[in-house]
Every structure is written in C-alpha cells, then in structure tokens.
Amino acid sequence: MKKSYALLILACIYMVISVVCKANTITANPGNYKTFLTQLVASDTLLLVAGTYTNNLTLKNINGTATQPIVITGSGNATVFQGQSCCNTISITQCSYLVIRNLKLDGMHEFVDAVKAEGTTANWAHHITLEQLNIVNYDADQQSVGISTKCSTWDWIIRKNIIIKAGTGMYLGNSDGTKPFVNGLIENNFIANTIGYNIEIKHQLDGVRNEFAGTAVNGKTIIRHNVFTKDTSSSTGGSARPNLLVGGFPLKGWGAQDSYEIYGNFFYNNPVEALFQGTGNIMLYQNIFVNHFNTSGFRAVYITPQNGVSPQNVQVFHNTVWTANSSGGIRLYNPNTSFKQYCYANVVCSASPITNFTDTLNNITDSYSNAGNYFLSATADINTLNLYPQNGKLKGSVTQSTVFQNNSNWNKDFNGDVSDWTYRGAYSGCCVNNGWKLQLDTMPTHSTTTTMVEQPIHNYEYMISPNPATEYVYISVPQNQTTNIKIMNTLGMLIREITVTHPVQVNVSAFASGMYVVILNNSLHQTQLFIKQ
After folding, report:
1. CA 400 to CA 318: how far, in whole Å?
2. Closest alpha carbon to 56 in 92, 26, 11
3. Which of 396, 414, 433 is the last residue of a domain?
4. Lowest-pLDDT range, 183-197, 302-316, 458-472?
5. Which segment of 14-28, 301-315, 328-342, 401-415 scores lowest on mean pLDDT?
6. Domain harbouring 79, CATH code
7. pTM across the whole model
C-alpha cells in the first residue's frame, strides 16, 4: 500500500511539473506582436500569423536556455516583414538561445539589413538559429546585407534560408576583426545574385576572443551543402567580391586553432572575382566549382594572405573545379611554412590548374575545353550540366587519407555517397548520377515519367524527381496533411502555388529553362531546388 501511494505521489509530481514546464505558445498578429516581445521567457514560442508586418522585429535581451530556447516563427512566405528605412528588419541585441524561422523578409529596396546582430558597445549574441527565412530585395547597395553580425557572436546556426538579390548575402563578424563570428554552422542555404559577396566571414584579431566568457578557446565554423551563385549584376572593379570569402585567425592564444570546414557546396559563376577566397586553417573538400566567365586575374579557388594572416593548415581534397578563368583553378599564395598545405585527389579543368602547393597527390588536371573528356555532360547550360565521371574516367589507385580523417564526413562525396578514395573530384562513382544534388534538404531520386497532372502518387519522404525535369516534377509530401507548395524563380518571383494533402506531380513544361526553388509549408517546412531543362 505504501508503495502504491508513493507511486501515486510521484505521478502527481510528474503531472504538476509537466504542466508547469509545458512550452507556452503565444499567437500574435501585425497589430499586437510587439507587445509580447518583452514578455517572452525560456520555452516560449511566439507564433506570428500570416499577414504583412510593416514594423521591424526588435529583439533585445531575449534569452532562452540550452534546453528551452525561445522560438519566434511565422507561416513561411505568408508572414511578411517589410523593410523600413528607419531600421534593420530584424534587430538582435544581447540575445541567446533564440530561434527565428519561417518568415519572409522583403527589403523593399531600402538601404537596411534583413537580420542584424547590432554592434553597439559591449553587445553580443550567441546560440542564435536562423532557418527557413526567405530574404529578398535587400539590394539598395552592396552594404545592404541579408544576415549581418557586428557584435561578438558564437554558436550560430544559419540554415535552409534563401537570400536572393541582396547587396551582400551574409557578412559575419565586424569589419575590423574585433568582434568575431565563432563556431558557426552554415548549411543548406541558397544565395544568389548578390551585388557583393554571397558570404564573407571576417578575420579575428589577437586577444579579442576572451572578451566574453561564453566563447570557446578553439572553434570550428562549418559551411556545407550551400549554393553560392552570382551573375552579371555583381559589382565590378575595386568593389568586385568573391562568392565566399573567409578570414584568418590569431597566431596565438584563443582562436589560434580555429578552422573552417567547407564541404559539399556548389559554387556557380562569378563574372568579376574568385568563387572562393580565404586564409587561416581551411579544410576545403567535396565541393563543385564552376565558372564560365573568363575573368582575367582571378582564380576559381584562391587561398592567399589577408589582413596580415597567411594560409596556415590547408587541406584541399576531392573537389571538382571547372573554370574558364584564364588565371587558373586552385592557387595557394605565400603560405605560412610552419604549417602543412595539402592538395589531393582533385579534378581541375582550367588554365594553370593547381599552383604553389608543394604536397600534391593524385590530382587530375586538364584544360577548360577538355572537360568533356571526363564528365557526363560538361556544358555551359546549367540545365544539362552533369559533372559526374564517365565510365573509366577519374578513377585510380587509393589516395592516402589518414591526414584528412579528422574532418566531418571526410569519407562522403558531394552526393553523400560513401567514398572509397579511388575517384578524383567531388563524386565517388561513375556512369549514372542518381540525382544532380542541387539540394537544400533531402536528396531527390529519379522516378518514371507519366503524363498525369497533379495526381496523387505514393507517400515517402519529401523529394523532387526527376531533377532536372522537362515536363513534370513529382513532389512527395505526407499524406493527409495540408501542404502549401510555392515554386519561385531565382529572382524571388512566385511562379506557381498549390495546396495539397497528398504527393503530387506538377506540369512544368511551360516554365522557362533554369533553376527554381520549391518551398513547402507544413510540418516539414522544407526547401529544395530543381532545374527545368
């Protein structure tokens, strides 16, 4: 009997704790949302309903915990914050353990930033997650930024966002190196047609990392599975910028062992500059670099000193580089000889394919014009581009891999398939590429084409197939769950919108050739790309 009472008491205590600790969801609209911001506490969710929000989202001293973050979420593209000339659209000051997701931020071509961690005296922002934001029209100037940090920031997650036509896609860290961006995860983002950088991460000066107790002595920033692309709207001359630029680290003390892992990204076109430029400790692998602009004076991949810091530990392996740049493919310049720099198992089709690396092994190099000898489809048309190896090509003896095994997913290829280290370049395999993996989420698989239009098909995890497509795309979503599907072009224009409760196939035969973004708003909240041939 005593044992039964004890169990009953424990059950009651558990029920009380469950009720007390239950997350609180607050629903707000454009007219009242500001009144709730100062009331948010750990585990709260502020749900912003569909509508147009003409005032900014000022977030100051909003702090959750590691186990109970504060979440601010919208209804995807239906929750729209419009840019105002007065202030940045989302302003973050002294916040932590905060998640912001499922919003559309329309800059209205004003000279403001979409999301900014403000840089006034003694500010900081840590453990911030930004995901599934659709950021458009922040293009008034190259200094107008999609996601910007000007204070000390650490442990940020930036994923599954779309940034199109911004002045700069992301600018992380203060320009003078005094307020670093540390220990970040940047993944599954699509950044296109920026005037300046798709992303820049600024350098760190000596002695700035221990300003706040929360920063780690050593950190790693991971940049993976993103799409970085620029077009002819890019700034030129002295204002020209690479797609991705990463800055260096201190030579001693806190931050000296920081590094970048940059893998599984697709870099496509830059008419005025390099696709990638960086210094410090750089691990660059399983990426695809393509540039059809012949930009004299710039390499596709340029690892070079910046702000007084020379390249340190550098590992460049299993990348595919195809570039028309007359100045070359992968170039290492003036490295710090106290460190090691490796260039292994890459495929580079370019003038001056690999220069200045002293430790090279099993790279395959050729000219830009000879790329068709190795890949399934080496074409300047992205709709038919397929850099998967031909049968009998890009394969050889096993490449020594011991030095690379501390990297994340070191044994996977661009498609996520296991690599046996006998292939060169970003792919490990030949002959049939099971999906030209320009993905922001899950990887698509191919299906048999039929002539039915928007008819239910079998239920499985969200995927788009075939990809590329000519007449129809199959979009698999959960059965019996309402899903809003938006198909947008890379300029942010809505091309098609449907609401379904089952997987569908959509007729895209009338779509212009090019790349499209598919956004699902349901419990999945996923985003993918597909190519219309």
Report:
1. 12
2. 92
3. 433
4. 458-472
5. 14-28
6. 2.160.20.10
7. 0.84
